[in-house]
Amino acid sequence: MTPLRTLISLVALATVLAAPTVRAECPYPKPVVFAGLNWESGMFLTEVLRYVLEEGYDCRTDALPGNSVTMENALAQNDIQVFAEQWAGRSPVWREAEEAGKVFAVGEPVKGASEGWWVPEYVVKGDPQRGIEPLAPELRKVSDLPRYKALFRDPEDPGKGRFYNCPTGWTCETVNSQKLKAYGLLDSYTNFRTGAGPALDAAIASAYRRGEPILFYYWSPTPLMGRFKLIQLEEPPFSEESWATLSDPRHPNPIGGSSLPAKISIGVSRDLHDRAPGLVGMFEQVAIPLPLLNQVLAEMGEQRRDVAEMRAAFFRQQRAVWSHWVPGEVAARIDASLK
């Protein structure tokens, strides 16, 4: 190669290397509005997906706060376009919208999710290191609970035990309220609803630190499930017949049974689904290992780190995870945004 050709080649290479990362054109013509979820895993997934859309696809995004049912209705009306942690098939609102083709459950961003009724392990087995004797060594099933209402005494209604339900407005609150009726527990337990997810967490953590009995609904992925030793109470097996009555708050005679097997999806509106198939294809690839997500959520709780800080750490430290979700040029734009 002649010196002149060598010089030209070097200049061309330098020009390519020095060129700024080319911005993409967002596949969706309007701002992508997310459900402003108010539980930790939902908040984290929302932040992660918004960052991918903003930095990788040059989309504008926003979030609209509201409870689960309100957000499902908003998704069906295309007032929002993305519900980052959708426990699909749980509520009548979702099922009706899905059957009408107004919403779609895309991908499975987290596998291994679970939910149920729980007590601290020391309630059943004791905790010798903390000097706690077993308080209910024969407690195994939800059907055992009438015998233990005094153990889980409600301080505001001492003749009954207290069951800590989901906050009002969450889909699980409806299901648990129907389960209390189905299991014949309304005469022996109060249906106690905290005002928000953090209030439920605080009640559980406070009882656990004191070694006190507490009966509550909970789910995974969450930081709390990784921090405490808990025992899930047994329920009758899941059936479609039972679930139809439990998920319908108007059903007068619900049938007891385990909840619908958990599957977390990303909920999208029909408008986004039809107009931005590239984004939908990316959502289908999103996957965060459950142990990693629980670790992230635990750090959020224990170290009081906000969700934006944890999202930034995720993209800097977990490239091997998120880079598989997107094409190479999108990953490059996200990399550039982190510098």
Structural account:
- It is a single chain.
- The chain is 43% helix and 17% strand.
- Helix 2 packs across helix 13, helix 2 crosses helix 15 and helix 3 runs parallel beside helix 4.
- The chain has 15 helices and eleven strands.
- The relative contact order is 0.17.
- The protein is globular.
- The protein has two domains: 165 residues, 3-Layer(aba) Sandwich (D-Maltodextrin-Binding Protein, domain 2), CATH 3.40.190.10; 133 residues, 3-Layer(aba) Sandwich (D-Maltodextrin-Binding Protein, domain 2), CATH 3.40.190.
- The chain is an alpha/beta fold.
- A hairpin with a 2-residue loop joins strand 6 and strand 7.
- The strands form three sheets. Strands 5, 6, 7, 8, 9 and 10 form a six-stranded mixed sheet that branches. Strands 3-11-4 form a three-stranded antiparallel sheet, with helices on both faces.
